[in-house]
Amino acid sequence: MYKDGVLMPRQGQGSLLTGVQPFPLTALRHPAVTTLLEDHRALLADLLDGLGSPLHVVLPEVFEENVAGLRQAFIESGADVDILFAKKANKADCYVSSAAALGAGIDVASSAELVKALAGGVPGHRIGISGPEKDDTLHALAVQHNCLVAIDSISELRRLAATARLADRRVRVLLRSRTSGQPGSRFGMAAAERDAAVGLCMELAGHVRFQGFSFHLNGYSPGERAMAANEMIEHCLDARRRGARSAELVDIGGGLPMRYVEPGLWDEFLRQNEPAHYHGTKASRGFSFYPYGGHSPAEAARMIMSHPVDGDESLSAKAARNGIRFLVEPGRSLLDQAGFTVYRVQQVEDRRDTDGYAIVTVAGNSLSLSEPWFNTDYLPDPLLISAEPAADEVFPACVAGSTCLENDMVTWRKIGFPRPVRPGDHLVYFNTAGYHMDFLESRFHDTALPLKAVIRLGDGGASPRWRLDGI
Fold this sequence. Notes:
CATH topology of the largest domain: TIM Barrel
Largest sheet: 9 strands, mixed
Number of strands: 21
CATH class of the largest domain: Alpha Beta
CATH architecture of the largest domain: Alpha-Beta Barrel
Distance between the termini: 49 Å
Number of domains: 2
Strand content: 15-25%
Shape: elongated
Number of helices: 12
């Protein structure tokens, strides 16, 4: 129980958890999500019963709202920017269809992704192809459909040009360059190779249309991304001086952060975070957290474009002065609030008398809720849905998957649930569309992959409409 804000040991616990309490990290919710949870909870329960746990709910209307908002942010910054949704962030077909309807593009990195983008209605000239050393099949599709290909090396440029020559076509290319801030990246060309590639593009002008530069950048710093984009503008200007007058595009990639929780709450979490807040020894091995309380995508876009690059001149002003257009490839940020995940509670092991917290096991596993490239935990609190009312006593628990793996933890952090969790209850994890739903999906134990229910809210109080994604 809690006394004066501190989790006190139950009888038999001794002093094991004295002074330790679950820290609340309340997730932000889009109004559409709130409407579904408050007014249509029975529908969600029926879908979970019929389609299985975990169930991913995807909301294309929120995705469409995000595209419009990001476009507006770039317009207000004075920049000429085309948006390409990075399809790797979520495999759902509904987002591709929404992008096509809005006239947005798609960024792909495989033949399968390219085929899905085309099948979803996105024309080839709005599709960008990234990824290192792409294979000949992907090259051939890119040439056939007039896609824009980011090239990582001289050898790839020669292969792509040969493919275009055989098809008697001209392929559009960007050259991916390493940045001065991350010279050790495995993606892109160093200065000497980049300069040679510009010359080769001009030699191969009959089958290659060189249009500018792109770069790969780890991290979420708007200032660092702006300075990298400025480097690419300078490369475009240098290429023009060498005779490549079509160098007018700079692809700034993705890396637009998004906000899962309020910034003040996030800052307080970081101040209070400690290993005892987590199950087992996970935290003692170290975490590298996503900036859950960071800038919104629109704020980040404005910060990038307004960043001074030459004295007091902003990136967008310099680009406009030199006739440079931008491409941006957001993935996660366009999926902000565009989906959530529901698990059914399978069993609860109450260890409060011995360890001070319970272990809630859900039907499903942690591969359906992944922060794949960080040694981290998905931190925003899940919502407990139960027929039981809230209790006077906080129920501390972590959440485990139902596999036989020790590290199959959906939530390592101890959550302070408002009442004891029971089998059959539901846990809702918010804002999971960006990378969490299917990045690490697996049929481990020969289980089925989770399904995605596409929901659109009805107009004028009508009931929501749903369908399975891809149907």
